[in-house]
Amino acid sequence: MPETAQHPDPKRWKALIFIALAQLMVVLDATIVNIALPSAQDSLHISEGNKQWVITAYALAFGGLLLFGGRLADLWGRRQTFIIGLLGFAAASAIGGAAVNTGMLLGARALQGAFGALLAPAALSLLAVTFTDPKERAKAFGVFGAIAGGGGAVGLILGGVLTEYMDWRWTFYVNIPFAAAAVAGAILVIREPSDSRNPSKLDIPGVLLATTGLVSLVYAFTRAEEDGWTAGATIGLFITAVVLLAAFVVVEGKVKNPLLPLRVLTERNRAGVYMSLGLAVIGMFGLFLFLTYYLQIVKEYSPVTTGLAFLPMIATMITGSTQIGARLMTRVPPRLLMGPGFLTASVGMALLTQLDTDSSYVGLILPAMLLLGLGMGTAFMPAMSLATHGVQARDAGVASAMVNTSQQVGGAIGTALLNTIAASATTAYLKDHAEGASSAQSLKLNALVDGYTTAITWAVFILLLASAIAFTFVNTGPQSGQPAAASGDGAEDEIPVPVMAH
């Protein structure tokens, strides 16, 4: 008998543990290598020009292949895709840990990204089709939202500990036990409803256009960071991305079995979620980056201490997600969690615009982190759930992939955009203050901090925009309505009509 909303899977809470473990591994990998990068660069003699490719290779493969991975999960079945993704991710991590030269490391990172693109949508859509009761769904997404938000910071801590006390290679090897545990769990306890697959043919033109379009977009921001926004290569890549993605939308409207059914995007609430989440992630990635630099370069914290300095933010993020978001999600409209959540985070971010070279951790950085974590946790949780709420089960994989795509593209844009802003501000400060400087070292540190605070000021406005989008676009009522519909054909009619919140 297939599990249905009336007969929930008895092992679903155990399944959640393994789904969350896999999600943690993917999110960790976006940041764990950042802290290990200087040691890896030293050990493998990676040139300055190639250094950023260790981060970019992962982001390009992951961001570019997510929609494809989400649709494969709908076609092959989520559990099978989940297991293939885990095994591939573990193998790629083993190659990365054993890397003997730059090429081997970059190849391993691209492979990790490709298997991550299979794994992440499969994990989120398994959650969407396993938890159909609104109250249970709220709890399950609370856990998942906390991991999606806090996993990046956990990566910074784990990266610091492994690099300082063991070896940078362990930032790769650590994935293997994670993956092994999640595969065992998937085989033993994860079940998916038998009627939730989408056996239609794969939309090859859609796959090619979406993948090349997203890769061009992510790469354009990376080039902008290196060559500047007005360089020919940068502009060329942006134009290519726009043309390819526009062609993708046209093709999706015409083919019989689209990679991304436009009905997933055109529903107003989901569009609001994708936009506001993408913007919030731009702000968050910038924050991780600049605070990590600030604590290590200006405050001279060790990698481990830097990681531990982020712990209070993880704690409030988990609190916001599980205690505020999950408890209120079935009672209040999502925009009343997302809007104020992003607003609270922007207040925390605004505090950080006051940073200077001798700012106190306890007096300034800690309160800012607590507010950021609380706001993000509260907002992420209903956003994650709303993105897959009311989607028919056959589209759950691709709707989940869109959440991950908005986060990945947001992360790539955030890193490149805010880094470029910070670098220009630092250069300008050095030029303007070179004459009256008491020492070269203090001038350098002041210039760096001026760059960070300029970029953080932009991040404040980006978070305010995310909050405004959540308030205006997301207009559905509390998420206690229909679970994801499970039937395959003719399910277009089953998309719940959003309830207007009065």
UniProtKB/TrEMBL annotation:
UniProt-listed InterPro entries: EmrB-like, MFS, MFS_dom, MFS_trans_sf, Sugar_transporter_CS
Domain Major facilitator superfamily (MFS) profile: 15-480
Membrane topology: Multi-pass membrane protein
Subcellular localization: Cell membrane
GO molecular function per UniProt: transmembrane transporter activity
Chain segments annotated as transmembrane: 15-37, 52-70, 82-104, 110-129, 141-162, 168-190, 202-222, 228-251, 272-295, 301-324, 336-355, 361-384, 452-474
Gene Ontology annotations of biological process type: response to antibiotic
Any Pfam family: MFS_1
Region called Disordered, residue ranges: 481-502
Cellular component, GO annotation: plasma membrane
Keywords: Antibiotic resistance, Cell membrane, Membrane, Transmembrane, Transmembrane helix, Transport
NCBIfam families linked to this entry: efflux_EmrB
Protein name: EmrB/QacA subfamily drug resistance transporter
